Every structure is written in structure tokens, then in C-alpha cells.
Amino acid sequence: MSARSRLGVLLAAVTVLTAVFVPSVSAHPAPAVPKTAVLDGTRLQQTKLRLDRGDPQLRRALRNLTARADNWLHQGSWTVVDKPKPAPGGDVHDYLSQAPYWWPTTTPTAANPWGCPYVQRDGQRNPEVDTGTDRQDVERVFDSTYDLALAWYYTGDKRYAQKADQVLRTWFLDPATKMNPNLDHAQFIPCKYDGRAIGIIDFSQSYTSVVDAIAILDTGAPGWTKTDRTAMARWNSDFLGWLKNSAFGTEEGAAANNHGTFYDMELAALAYATGDKALAKRTVLDARAKRIDPQIAGDGSQPQELARTRSWHYSTFDLVAYTRLAAIGRHVGVNLWTYQGPDGQGLLKAVDYLLPAATGAAAWSHPELEFYRYAASDVVHAAADAGDARAKAAVPKLEAPPGGDLWALRPAAEQLDSITG
Known about the structure:
Number of helices: 16
Largest sheet: 2 strands, antiparallel
Strand content: under 5%
Radius of gyration: 24 Å
Distance between the termini: 82 Å
Strand order of the largest sheet: 1-2
Number of strands: 2
Order of helices and strands: HHHEEHHHHHHHHHHHHH
């Protein structure tokens, strides 16, 4: 065989070996990294790559996520303008919700249509708050856009992105149906208050999911245009301005319990998403002495939340805000998980305090009208990811929430035992 022939055979062999042993770069191009505020965009990208390679555990979780997303395909869109009565100011574009734990004391009449005066029953939800206001609809907007955006990112199915686009445009952007960027009439009390600062929690407890959904769609979702991105960024900027400068925002920011924690979390997320990283970092840093020190005791308990009639719910609820705030801190160089206050209090201790009840090893010994063990699952996952050995050991013993454990696909805590209806 000539030298040229031997060279040809050698080159052919190298070509075959390369085709066999070198994976095709174009088979699964690396997905874009979403610039999320709470979720870790790089982690989402890595999860997407593992899914593309057929990871069986993630495939099971993805089936649960797409089942949720599929359900949203046939619902909505929702808008603030279709409630039976406008907010007290008369503008149908203003968001309206009713205080959940306030009840009428008399039977409504023509002269007294609300049954005033109203009295408070802590932890007991008045069913009328779910009719005639925007509360349930906005929760559907938050939940659907999050599920749909994640489902699109992991599957590439354009139906999910297009539905998320539609929901966001209808609620926030379309001039005929959009919401004004304020919460002036949130959690009003009939015949008492036209709105309250405490109503900001209607958004602060879940709106960061929308912020992250937008960041996911911004990676190239079909139908989500540059115009949409610009308009949504403007809405978020205007809403952030209202949070910072309104009387209600100032009052909620001064709240000493979970309301203050959630306010900080929402403020930091919107600041990060709109480019004010300095405000985001300052908010996370301030939460150490301003929130953790007075709210969490040396043993990890949260005394203000334990005093509630739904102490398990509110103890996990406050930690949803803290774990998300810690996630935002990761983006701006602050490790909130490692902070310890003057009495040794910190987020890891607060989660560890819940572990006996979260794993079923012991009963919850504080007042609770409706105990759901799975309510703690996400915050335990978060602590485990942050390096807490006790939380990591507890993860296999957690109770999965309805619809399955989605932590692997969306590692950011949600309030799993929602009482919003």
C-alpha cells in the first residue's frame, strides 16, 4: 500500500473515531442563562442540560411541572377591569382586594349592603374576599406565568411561552386591561378603610415569581417581543417607585413581622431586576439587624409567628421570604445564610426549628388551625442547598406537596399551603 493510501486509511479511521467518541455540539446547544432575581439562572441552565441528556429523576419532575402548565393553557387570561365593582377611587384599572380575616357583624341590607361594621377573626378566612375583587385572579397570574415560563424553558414547547405572553400582556401591558402599578386599594375593609399598607403582601408574597418568569421569557421565548420586555421593565420600575415612595410602602417597610420580610424581599428583587443592584444589596444587608435579629430567637423560633392562630403556616411563610431574600443576596454578593445575630439566631436555626414537625418526627406544639406538614418542604430544601447538614438529612423524610416536589426544577421556596383560596 502506498504512503498516500495508508494516509487515507488513517484519516478515515480518525473521522470514524471522532464521530463515535466526540458528542455533537449542535445536538443540544447550551440554553441561555436567565437573569433571574430569585432563581439561580446558571442552575436552571445546568438543569436544562441534564434534562436534555435524559436525567430520569428530572424527567419525573418535569412531568409534574408540565401537568401544571398544561392546566393553565385552558385558563385565563385575567384582568383587573372585569371585577363587578371598581376600587373605591373609581378606576377599574386599580387593583382591589379585601382583608381576608375581617367579617361582617350584621346581615347585609339595602341600607347596609356590606353588613358593617366588620370585626377581625385572625386566621379565619372570610369567603366573600374571593368574590368581587382581584385577589384570586392575580394569584392565577403569578402562578401561571411561573409554571408556563419554566415549562417552556425546559421543553421548548412554544405553547407555554405564548400563553405566558398572553397572560402578562393582559394583566400588565394592554391599555384596555392593564393594572395600574400601585396597591392603593389592597386589602380594604368595607366601611372602614379604602386600602391598607398591609395589602402589599398580596404581591410581595408571590410577585417575585413573575419577575423571574419574565427573565426566563427574555432568553428568547417565541412571541415575547422587545416591546413587551421594555414595557414590562417600565411597569416594574414604576411599581418599585411606588413601593419605595408611597405612604403605604413606607408603612409596610416598617412592619416588624413577616410583612416586613416580604416587603424587603420584593423590594430587593425589583431593584435587582430593574438594574439597581446597590439597592438590592443594601436591602439584603440591612435585613440582618433589621429583620433576623428581632424576628428570630436564639433557638430558631419566630415568636411573632408562633403567637398566631396558624403558627406553622406563618413560621414557614416568613421563611419563604427569608430564603428568597437569601437567594437574591447570592446575586449581589451577600451570604444571608451564614449570618448569626447576637443571640446566635439565623436562618439555618430557624429552618432547623421546623425539622421535627416537617419530617413527622414530632408534633407541632404551637397553635395551628390547619396543619400541613408539606408546607415546610421548600424551605428545608433551601437550607439543605445552603449547606445545612440537618436539613440535608431531613430532605428524604419530607412530605411532597400536592402535585409533586418541583424543587429540582424551580429551586426557590413557595408557600405550599396557600390560604388565598
